[in-house]
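User: Design a sequence. Structure:
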């Protein structure tokens, strides 16, 4: 695999082929753009939070076709852009203003203009997907115009959308979607993008200290702020085995490197608690890159998806050069930022069973995220609950999983056991409160006090009961 290493990275920016010799593949795309005088793309936060650096990448959508995908250029290492097409704000006009630019001008969507390139590119990408709604710009912050004129601009373009036929739609039709292998080295730094799992193992054998990277929405923060050096990076985003998304009547198998936006689109309606958490997970630009493997791989106690997966009894398929094993996610997290992942092992996929408990007639399942703001924020506490009941409303199966309340995402197992065999009613929920209060010992930090978290642990479960109860009553009334 280390044969055929090239010191040249090529990418296409606004239709122009760019060849970079001896570039640092861990430099962010934003840094490269700004140092190469493409100053339209702005740097606001360098953290993926503000959207000023948004560019569009052509990439494979959940439907397998090429799409423009808005991403944060401040988080993406150059190596990950090899052989890919990037559209920056400079490329959007193409001789005349793009309809999204015209609408922003007409409706006064810009004042100081610093955030505007990011909004334009987010709207540009949504234009070709015909998804010009608030979600298209949820990852873009504006501090002076106010959002109303920008939303009006988006609504105006959406209202006027008919057949799209322009150079950008043509470019999409012509675009290749499958990522090519990359073997890049410049003496100091190496960046690999293998396309098969076996190649990942070979590379890990050759470079035991290499860093795995998927969407880079976590690692990208280290790159953006130059906090860490990564001499050898192995990108997982082109590995076929990590890109599967398969559904049967019994279960769902999600490749570890599938972007969250694909999961959102493909599995919508299958697991309500997953739908809900994905809705509040970061913002569009991050979800276009972030993966489940990365969310689990960081082993963050405040990762939002592990509680959901724990509440659904998810399993992980882990593999190394000698074989693979399946491990319940509940056994994966060992301690603060520690996992059961062995050297040379990668997370290949995540399995989620669909079946409800034997004898159960109904599953109640939902997730909750409490942060300081709705969109694009880290959780103070995240929780996900699954309750299966029989035809007498007795609890047959219970999962209460939390993030942000312990060193690892964890289940309240004593409470789950207490609930089995009890009727699913408010009295049972009240009786479970003392046990829930003892289940975790949360810490205080900048986001919330230990006391606040402790209250959330209990109150979110109560909220779950109240919400599920009202849904059940509504559906009974509709049937009646
Ligand atoms: C603005 C912003 C908002 C965010 N909001 C949220 C949020 O709301 N909720 C939340 O939970 N997180 C959030 N995050 C964090 C991040 O987006 C998620 O953790 C994401 O799922 C990471 O996925 P990734 O593919 O980008 O991981 P990467 O950054 O590529 O990798 C993260 C870690 O996982 C390891 N890894 C990746 N894939 C594998 C694999 N297959 N096997 C083994 N190890 C692997 C990597 O080596 C690395 O250590 C946010 C980040 C940003 C920048
Ligand atoms: S600079 Fe703020 S999201 Fe990239
Ligand atoms: S126009 Fe000034 S920050 Fe948005």
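Assistant: Done.
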């Amino acid at each position: 695999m280390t044969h055929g290493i090239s010191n040249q990275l090529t990418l296409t920016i606004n239709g122009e082929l760019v060849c970079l010799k001896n570039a640092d593949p861990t430099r962010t795309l934003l840094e490269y753009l700004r140092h190469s005088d493409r100053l339209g793309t702005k740097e606001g936060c360098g953290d993926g939070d503000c959207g000023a650096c948004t560019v569009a990448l052509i990439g494979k959508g959940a439907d397998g076709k090429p799409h423009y995908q808005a991403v944060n250029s401040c988080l993406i290492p150059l190596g990950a852009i090899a052989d890919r097409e990037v559209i920056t704000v400079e490329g959007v006009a193409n001789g005349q203003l793009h309809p999204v630019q015209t609408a922003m001008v007409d409706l006064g969507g810009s004042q100081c203009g610093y955030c505007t390139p990011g909004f334009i590119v987010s709207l540009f990408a949504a234009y070709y997907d015909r998804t010009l709604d608030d979600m298209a710009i949820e990852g873009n912050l504006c501090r002076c115009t106010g959002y109303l004129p920008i939303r009006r601009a988006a609504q105006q373009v959406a209202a006027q959308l008919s057949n799209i036929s322009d150079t950008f739609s043509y470019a999409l039709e012509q675009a290749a979607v499958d990522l090519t292998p990359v073997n890049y080295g410049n003496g100091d730094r190496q960046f690999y993008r293998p396309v098969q799992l076996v190649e990942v193992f070979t590379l890990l054998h050759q470079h035991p200290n290499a860093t795995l990277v998927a969407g880079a929405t976590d690692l990208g923060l280290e790159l953006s702020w130059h906090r860490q050096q990564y001499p050898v990076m192995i990108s997982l985003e082109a590995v076929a085995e990590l890109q599967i998304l398969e559904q049967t009547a019994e279960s769902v198998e999600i490749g570890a490197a599938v972007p969250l936006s694909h999961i959102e689109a493909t599995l919508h309606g299958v697991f309500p608690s997953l739908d809900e958490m994905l809705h509040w997970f970061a913002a569009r630009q991050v979800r276009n890159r972030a993966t489940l493997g990365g969310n689990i791989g960081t082993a963050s106690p405040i990762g939002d998806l592990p509680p959901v997966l724990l509440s659904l009894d998810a399993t992980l398929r882990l593999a190394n050069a000698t074989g693979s094993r399946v491990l319940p996610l509940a056994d994966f997290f060992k301690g603060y930022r520690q996992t059961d992942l062995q050297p040379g092992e990668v997370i290949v996929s995540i399995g989620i069973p669909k079946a409800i408990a034997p004898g159960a007639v109904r599953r109640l399942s939902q997730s909750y995220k409490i942060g300081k703001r709705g969109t694009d924020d880290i959780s103070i506490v995240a929780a996900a609950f699954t309750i299966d009941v029989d035809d007498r409303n007795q609890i047959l199966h219970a999962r209460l999983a939390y993030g942000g309340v312990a060193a690892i995402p964890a289940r309240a197992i004593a409470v789950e056991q207490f609930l089995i065999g009890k009727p699913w009613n408010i009295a049972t929920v009240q009786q479970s409160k003392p046990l829930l209060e003892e289940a975790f010992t949360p810490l205080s930090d900048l986001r919330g006090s230990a006391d606040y978290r402790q209250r959330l642990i209990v109150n979110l479960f109560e909220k779950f009961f109240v919400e599920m109860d009202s849904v059940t009553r509504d559906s009974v009334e509709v049937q009646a």
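Residues 110-116, 142-145 surround FE2/S2 (inorganic) cluster (ligand 3) (CB under 6 Å). Residues 362-479 form a domain with the Enolase-like; domain 1 fold (CATH 3.30.390.50).
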